[in-house]
Amino acid sequence: MNTAAPPSTLRLRLSLRHGDFALAVDETLPAAGILALHGPSGAGKTTLLRCIAGLERATGGFLSHGNATWQDDAQAAFVAPHRRRVGVVFQEARLFDHLTVRGNLQYGLRRTPAAERRIGLEEVVAALDLAPLLDRAPQRLSGGERQRVALGRALLTSPRLLLLDEPLSALDRSRKDAILTFLAQLPARYGISLIYVSHTLDEVIQVADYLVLLEEGRIAGHGPLADVLGRLDLPLAQRDDAGAVLEAEVSGHDERYHLTRLRLADQHLTISRLARRAGEKLRLHIHARDVSLALNPPADTTILNVLPCRITAIAPADNPAQALVGLESGGQALLARITRKSCDQLGMKPGITVYAQIKSVALTL
Amino acid sequence: METFALWPPALLTLRLAAVTTAILLLIATPLAWWLSRSHNRLKPAVEAVVALPLVLPPTVLGFYLLIALGPQGFIGAPWLAATGETLTFSFAGLVVGSVIYSLPFVVQPLQTAFTAVGEPLLEAAATLRASPWDRFLSITLPAARRGFVIAATLGFAHTVGEFGVILMIGGNIPGKTQVLSIAIYDRVETLHYGDAHALAAGLLVFSFVALLTVYGLGRRTRTGWRS
Asked: Which fold has domain B7-221?
């Protein structure tokens, strides 16, 4: 790998107006790994994605990806979508009904010069379990099958950047998890970076390395996933399912009590037995509502997981009875939601050390 | 009593319809494509002009064609200079008249079919590295193939059934411009009802089969057209 190469970034300066809706974005984002674009419906996620793909043209804009400039209105430059090497998986599959599944998969592959191909048909068919579908007509596929074919079709163009617009909204839970696991491997396996649009926070937490929050056509906040989720100043922190993500490693199992021990930096967590090997890396989601705080190490408690933390910030919650507390433990951010009364009575303030009692830990993948 | 040959007018009619349909598909495909994609201000005007033959009496169309195709007309004069022949009362003149007269019957089914292909599929093809021309060939044309069958059938059948325009610009020259519909008129005028029956029944059956083809396809694809 050439370490002298410029870091892969996506430079966006776009503004666009559609009736009442206005998109105005001016940011430099990392284009490596998986970037999630999250926000409520109507925030402009799809419009932004379409601008990146070249399907829509913002006015007076600039758009570049790594070394490639896709739009520069100062130079009257605009690269057509078919020359951008950007793959798109649309929300509604958009398969070609006059071709079989195989024909759909080969459509983009045939138009990709051999020198640019990094992914082969067999590989995609195996990874997405498409073999039984190859000779079928797209009209005879289920919603989930259609999305798998659409994903395979886009991958076979060996894109530099793969854009996914709510691709899993029609899928059931187990299919969703399988495809998310597959997506999470794409950057490392093929050097493809992903922009994943979703209004479902759970999906975002499962796959994203970097999170961009879009609201009413503007970027409300962006940063590495754990940083953004740990921030108290974003509306995200006010949601009932707000919480932090922690990176952990399986350190061992306790067969007698059917438990698995996880290591996070210098701390440990114990959760219900997982079918994972020691050394495997995991991403945990800990909801703010499941974290309570104590000033001293609690004794005689039924809660197994207690992490010593430093308070980094305290902010009022939308619910006037509650407060949000930002915590830091071993370099990772944690979030707690407690009552404002406890907060005052125990003299909680930034800088002091507290003990976070974690009632439950959700595993993301 | 003269003997009347049924085949020359029938063959002339088929030849006229075949040539007209071929030319129409060449003209109507880009025109229908433009109409299905354009938001140009002139689009309604172009649509109205294309649809004029649907509402105008054939005599009106035939009258203006007679003038335009005549030796002093803006089409007829250059044609005369180039070929040494007049367009009126000739097979070439019939082709020009038929192309204009049957244009809406080919443009409209194609426009409907192209519109039905929809921007989303073409966008998907663009993100799969297909250039605009490639997208037209690989997505639009195959997806609109039933529209082409319908357009060709309607254009052909409508040209076969043409009467007024031909009468105005082509006259009634046996073997040269006397097509089936004219021959029927001619036979009835001269009280040869037997000949008229044979020709009329043939046209009736042909037209029915053509429409059956069209409606059969239309039902399967839900491709409609206005006429």
From this structure: MetI-like fold (1.10.3720)
- Domains of chain B, by residue range, sit at 7-221
Q: Is A88 on the interface with B (CB under 8 A)?
A: yes
Edge-first strand listing for the sheet containing A210-215:
A86-89, A161-165, A193-198, A34-38, A210-215, A218-224
Assembly ipTM: 0.85
Cβ–Cβ gap B120/A90 under 8 Å: yes
User: Which residues in A211-243 are b (16+ Cβ under 10 Å) and which e?
Assistant: bbbbbebbbbbbbebbebbbbbebebbbeeebb
Q: Give, to the nearest 10 degrees, the angle between helix B7-37 and helix B43-55.
A: 160
Asked whether the CA dihedral B83, B85, B88, B93 is positive or negative, the reply is negative
pTM over 0.90: no
Q: Which of A96, A100, A158 to mutate to test the interface with B (most CBs of B within 10 A)?
A: A96
Q: Tokens 């610009």 sit at which residue? A: B169
Instruction: Tell me the domains of chain A and their CATH numbers.
Output: 9-238 (3.40.50.300), 243-363 (2.40.50.100)
- Beta strands per DSSP E along B40-138: none
Q: Do A94 and B121 touch (CB under 8 A)?
A: yes
Q: Is A266 on the interface with B (CB under 8 A)?
A: no
Which chain B residues touch A165 with a CB distance below 8 Å? Answer: none
Q: How many residues does chain A have?
A: 365
Q: Do the chains contact at B124 and A86, CB–CB below 8 Å?
A: no
Eight-class DSSP state of A6 = P
- The end-to-end CA distance of chain B, in Å, is 43
| Minimal C-alpha gap between A55 and chain B (Å) | 7
With H, G, I as helix, E, B as strand and everything else as coil, classify residue B130.
coil
Q: Estimate to the nearest angstrom the gap between the alpha carbon of B106 and the chain centroid.
A: 6
Residue of B121, B129, B131 lying closest to A96 (CB–CB): B121
DSSP annotation string for B18-44: HHHHHHHHHHHHHHHHHHHH---TTHH
Distance CA B183, CA B195 (A): 9
From first to last of its 227 residues, chain B has per-residue pLDDT tens of 456 677 888 888 999 999 999 999 999 999 999 999 888 999 999 999 999 999 999 999 999 999 999 888 888 899 888 888 888 888 889 999 999 999 999 999 999 999 998 899 999 999 999 999 999 999 999 989 889 999 999 999 999 988 889 888 887 888 788 888 888 988 898 998 988 998 899 889 988 988 888 888 766 544 334 33
> Two tokens at A42?
């109507």
Cβ-Cβ contacts under 8 Å, B131 against chain A = 80, 82
Q: Is A317 on the interface with B (CB under 8 A)?
A: no
